[in-house]
From TrEMBL:
It comes from Shimia thalassica. HAMAP family: UPF0260. Belongs to the UPF0260 family. This is UPF0260 protein PH7735_00520.
């Protein structure tokens, strides 16, 4: 079933990401790169000494587990001030903790996008059908004490 895509992707040049560096993308192109997997909205645990990042299935309070989208995207900082706004100017600082399949990280690493990316498939559900999103796999951070997040570490769906 194809549902409407909350991320505007119409009117963009064909495979623009293969011809433009991240630093030259327009805001619309930048936003369209998000595949909607929701994995960046899961809480992570970072080892202060080794820098190793572990993913948990404990989701940000604003994440919708069914759609994998933020329920208050435009005003999210009112509720989650620490939510990071990724941009061409700060991706160098954040790519290391982004999911392995995240389009921003892939392009930053010089890798191609996967065929299930909605920009290629034309279907926002293809990220879920490919099994790489966190759809129906999360628990809310309201339900798990932060001291227990270690018990909720998962392998990244990829
Ligand atoms: S991990 Fe990357 S591609 Fe997935 S939802 Fe977050 S920003 Fe978008
Ligand atoms: S505030 Fe929204 S975009 Fe930010 S981590 Fe939470 S669900 Fe994701």
């Amino acid at each position: 079933m194809t549902t409407s895509d909350p991320i505007p992707r119409k009117g963009l040049a064909n495979r623009f990401w293969e011809r433009k560096p991240l630093s030259k993308m327009t805001p619309k192109e930048w936003e369209a790169l998000c595949d909607g997997c929701g994995k960046c909205c899961l809480n992570k645990l970072e080892d202060a000494e080794t820098g190793q990042v572990e993913l948990t299935c404990v989701a940000c309070r604003l994440l919708d587990d069914s759609t994998c989208h933020c329920t208050q995207y435009d005003i999210r900082h009112q509720f989650v001030p620490e939510c990071i706004v990724m941009s061409p100017s700060n991706i160098d600082d954040h790519a290391y903790w982004m999911p392995q399949t995240c389009a921003y990280r892939l392009l930053w690493e010089g890798k191609p996008l996967f065929n299930w990316h909605p920009l290629i498939s034309g279907d926002p559900n293809s990220v879920h059908q490919a099994g790489v999103s966190i759809q129906h796999r999360t628990v809310s951070e309201f339900e798990v004490d932060e001291d227990d997040w270690e018990d909720y570490i998962i392998e990244e769906p990829a």
